[in-house]
Amino acid sequence: MISKNKIKYIRSLELKKNRISERIFVAEGNKLVADMLPFYTCKLLLAKPNWMATQGDIPAEELLVAEEDDIRKASFLKNPQDVLALFHYPEWNLEEADPRKDLVLLLDGIQDPGNLGTIIRLADWFGIEHIVCSTDTADVFNPKTVQATMGALAHVKVHYTELAGYIRHWKGNSVPVYGTFLDGDNLYGRSLTKNGLLIMGNEGNGVRPEIASLADERLYIPNYPQGRETAESLNVAIATAILCSEFRRRIF
Description:
Number of strands: 10
Distance between the termini: 55 Å
Strand content: 15-25%
């Protein structure tokens, strides 16, 4: 049986302030934890014996055999799986996010942890290694975000900074800046590059005016058929998928 204090500590990491002060986050699920173990330093791992038996040597600072009830008490999921792990925060360097070499996603005020996690998963699929977020974007280490990435955090680095200054710096280095807007130009009729900055805006308000003013290309995903009455806009994660797919398609 896992101690009450251990379970209390794990549960405390649901709060952002505790994750930041401890520099520790939670990941759950058989595949998710297995995918992340080679890339993150594991502080603590709780797992059922049957999961441990399939993993060989598990690189964790503390390894505890857990019963189903232990994991249920510690878990943030409605249906916990066989393993839960605590990982140390990684050391990600914003300077590595270089849009002269490849496409970098910029997220302006994304609020929903699930949307953020899905966007990270999409970035991984389309070979985008860096996402740069405004400081008010959802926390990448929120348990809901981590879960939604489905292991993509093993390959994608997420940075937080003041976006306007970041964009201005790269505009001065002749890097193209793309943004998504309801009054933009048809995505499919515009020239797209294999590198640059691609801005995705807040779920309800889109890209804020200060950031929008820095975009060189204002893109719009047209509905079909044009002129047909539809919902006002797409979910930001869905829009990100369409845009990333089109940018990558132009490479082939």
